[in-house]
Amino acid sequence: MIKDLMDEFVTRYETEDFIKDDPVQFPHRYKKAEDIEIAGFIASIFAYGNRKAFIGKLNQLFALMGESPYEYIINGRFELNGFNYRFMKENDIAAILEVLHKLYLKDGGLAGLFAHAVQSEDLMQYVCDYFYKNVSEKAGDGFYFAIPNPSKGGAMKRMWMFLRWMVRKSAVDLGVWKFMTPADLCIPMDVHVARISRELGILKRNSNDKKAVTELTAFLRTLDPQDPIKYDFALFGYGVNNK
Predict the structure, then answer these.
(1) What are phi and psi of 121, to 5 degrees?
(2) Residue 172, SS3?
(3) What pTM value is reported for the model?
(4) Backbone dihedral region of 175: left (phi > 0), alpha (psi from -120 to 50 degrees) or beta?
(5) For residues 1 and 160, what is the distance between their CA atoms, to the nearest angstrom?
(6) Is 218:212 a contact under the CB 8 Å cutoff?
(7) Whole-angstrom distance, CA of residue 25 vs CA of residue 223
(8) C-alpha angle with apex 182: 117 to 16, nearest 5 degrees?
């Protein structure tokens, strides 16, 4: 049965050993909730392309931030010294940090933003609209790559991955936010997850988009309605074992 296979892979891969090679390692460095959520948000938006490359870049960025990402954001002095990553240039990264600065000074931080977003008609659109409304004119295309517009129908993989880290509590995920439950989450769908899901016959849609996320998440909820996104680890494990 597919559920037995998926449960086996969850047990095998949702362990502390998973953390060291994954961007979730960055929020795990901190104890304070604000540091965890800021580190998680920043790590998630950099999580594209070559894994070794973006983890190396994140190590550089967090070294610039010092001991507390929260204090760095609150202080508002973003001297990035030419720091960039692929599509995201220095001005794009600075623009994201400046929106976070306003968010934490005036609007309740990431937890406050997402807590309000949960009550809206479209969680992802609400969050992204906040960034769009508050971004400076100096932001370029890299800003909008980092914070993509959900209205375009994309999978929003990195944002759902961030929410998995913040909402689920497990050996890997940190579970610092209580205003959502794991049952509310959607699968963080990338090319790998989509391909494996099609190989298993649990995803029929050909495009890796919002509708595919909805379809796959609906199937995973039939396996575990309370915690469907734990199967993110199963899909990862299946891919590792069937290369």
Answers:
(1) -70, -30
(2) coil
(3) 0.97
(4) left
(5) 27
(6) no
(7) 28
(8) 120
pLDDT tens digits, 187-207: 999 999 999 999 999 999 999
pLDDT, tens digit, 9 for 90 and up, residues 131-156? 999 998 878 999 999 999 999 999 99
Six-digit token string for 203? 């995803």
Helix H segments across 119-206?
123-134, 141-146, 157-167, 191-200
Find out whether 19 and 239 touch, Cβ atoms under 8 Å. Answer: no
Distance CA 43, CA 56 (A): 11
Q: Tell me the residue type at 55.
A: I
Domain count, the chain: 1
Q: At what angle do helices 109-118 and 123-134 cross, to 10 degrees?
A: 130
What sign does the dihedral 228-232-235-241 (CA atoms) show?
negative
Q: Judging by beta carbons within 10 Å of its beta carbon (0-12, 13-18, 19+), is residue 1 exposed, middle or buried?
A: exposed
DSSP state, residue 88: B
Tokens representing residue 181 in the block:
């439950």
Indicate the burial class of 7 (C-beta count within 10 angstroms; 0-12, 13-18, 19 or more).
middle
242 pLDDT above the threshold of 80: no
- 175 is in which domain, residue-wise? 2-241
**Taking CA 228 as the corner, what is the angle to CA 223 and CA 234, rounded to the nearest 5 degrees?**
80
Nearest to 186 by CA among 154, 227, 150, 229: 229
What tokens appear for 173 in the block? 């995920």
Residue 167 · residue 182 · CB < 8 Å? yes
Q: Which helix (H) or strand (E) holds 1?
A: none
